[in-house]
Design goal:
Oligomer: single chain
Structural class: alpha/beta
Strand order of the largest sheet: 2-1-3-4-5
Distance between the termini: 15 Å
Helix content: 55-70%
Radius of gyration: 30 Å
Order of helices and strands: HHHEHEHEHEHHEHEEHHHHHH
Number of helices: 15
């Protein structure tokens, strides 16, 4: 037996350009891509904002002032509805009950309400001794996320202030020789009151608990799928087991790719039961996160994390060594900025809105938000989420077994070097 040659030295290997090339290029490209994708989705929400749904309620039932065909509330509502704030707002003219329904189902991010008796309150301002100002109410919807609710509140408040300024000009002109105190009151006659239109619990992270809980489920499925995949490969002798200075390799178990994928998916279904239960234990029981419909939340959480885990197994089976990187992009890198859970989809560039139609994190976050904040209503996004989970699961099975079946038929066996 020939004597082993001298061991290589790191200082010598560092002088080899080809050793640097691939890691440098891949690391640079991944870093650049991650930076563009993540920051590109959140860097300019006001600039990207388009058609944010906001309810507009005109409850004014007062008689029109003398010489006018419409009451004051109707005129203001029509002016606001015609002005979309540069395309940023999608005003939905609704009754008060309809607006509350859409707040409770998460279909609007807020509401602007003109109350009953608004015209009478405005008319009273021109009388002697007037002190009370008419009000308009801005309703927020924190269940849609703090940023989305804030954007809707800003748009509604700006619309109300503009309406107040326009009304003030008319009243001041009509007041003529009124004293200075009355004119100051008339210049900005409307008081704007902000209230919560759909309250959520104090342990809801200002509406962000739905996003972070969804992220935990995606990570549970993603990390669990990869850990199971690596663990099975190690146990079956297709990968080395190296912990610190200890290195072992088990005898190789003869098994084809299809049966290996079936084994990994079955283990994923079993182990996900444990991981999802621990997520709920940590979030709801230990940390006290506000949550209702707990049995439904557990079932949904299991199905959501399982769909991700099965997708990871299918991608790993199809792409091999780079499967973990591919699944990271599918479930996390592209999923986070297109989820709509932190920044509304109406406030992200069109590319991310396109991704949101099929990216898993958006589908899952809609369901979690519906369960946590909107009484598990189907029209709050839960029905669509169940459908997308089912579609994702079917696609994972179809893609994974189609690829492994093809590899097996072509005789592409996995390398099985035995340990010396």
């Amino acid at each position: 037996m020939a004597a082993p040659g001298p061991e290589a030295r790191a200082t010598a290997l560092l002088r080899r350009p080809h050793l640097w090339l691939v890691p440098t290029v891949l690391t640079g490209l991944l870093t650049l891509l991650l930076s563009l994708l993540y920051m590109g989705g959140i860097v300019n929400p006001n600039g990207d904002l388009r058609d944010l749904p906001i309810a507009l309620v005109n409850g004014d039932t007062g008689e029109p002032p003398a010489g006018q065909r419409q009451n004051v509330g109707t005129r203001i509502a029509e002016a606001i509805a015609a002005d979309t704030a540069g395309g940023k707002a999608d005003w939905r003219t609704l009754t008060r009950a309809e607006a509350q329904e859409q707040l409770d189902s998460g279909r609007v991010y807020g509401a602007l309400v003109i109350p009953p008796g608004f015209t009478d309150s405005v008319t009273a301002l021109t009388t002697t001794g007037a002190t009370a100002r008419p009000t308009m109410t801005v309703l927020t919807n924190p269940g849609k996320g703090s940023l989305g609710s804030s954007l809707a509140s800003q748009i509604s408040t700006a619309a109300a202030r503009q309406a107040s300024a326009g009304l003030g000009e008319q009243l001041t002109a009509a007041a003529g020789s009124a004293d200075s105190t009355i004119k100051v009151l008339l210049a900005d006659p409307v008081e704007i009151v902000t209230e919560v239109g759909h309250p959520i619990g104090s342990h809801s992270g200002l509406g962000l608990s739905a996003f972070y809980y969804t992220l935990l489920l995606v990570l549970a499925g993603f990390m669990g799928g990869n850990v199971i995949s690596n663990g099975v490969d190690t146990a079956l002798g297709y990968a080395d087991n190296e912990i610190g200075p200890w290195h072992t390799r088990r005898p190789t178990v003869p098994i084809n790719r299809t049966q290996t994928l079936l084994l990994k998916m079955a283990m994923t279904a079993g182990i996900t039961l444990v991981s999802v239960s621990l997520v709920m234990l940590a979030c709801v029981t230990i940390l006290g996160m506000d949550a209702t419909h707990l049995p439904l939340l557990w079932v949904y959480s299991y199905c959501a994390a399982l769909a991700v885990g099965l997708g990871v197994q299918a991608i790993n089976a199809a792409f091999g060594g780079i499967g973990q990187l591919v699944s990271m992009f599918v479930f996390i890198v592209l999923g986070l900025p297109s989820s709509g859970a932190t920044v509304p989809l109406q406030a992200v560039p069109a590319f991310y809105r396109f991704l949101s139609y099929f990216e898993p994190m958006r589908q899952l976050s809609d369901g979690i938000r519906a369960i946590l904040f909107f009484d598990a209503r189907g029209d709050a996004g839960l029905t669509r989420s169940w459908i997308m989970i089912a579609i994702g699961t079917v696609l994972a099975f179809a893609f994974g077994f189609a690829m492994t079946g093809y590899y097996d038929r072509k005789g592409h066996k996995r390398l099985t070097p035995q340990p010396a």
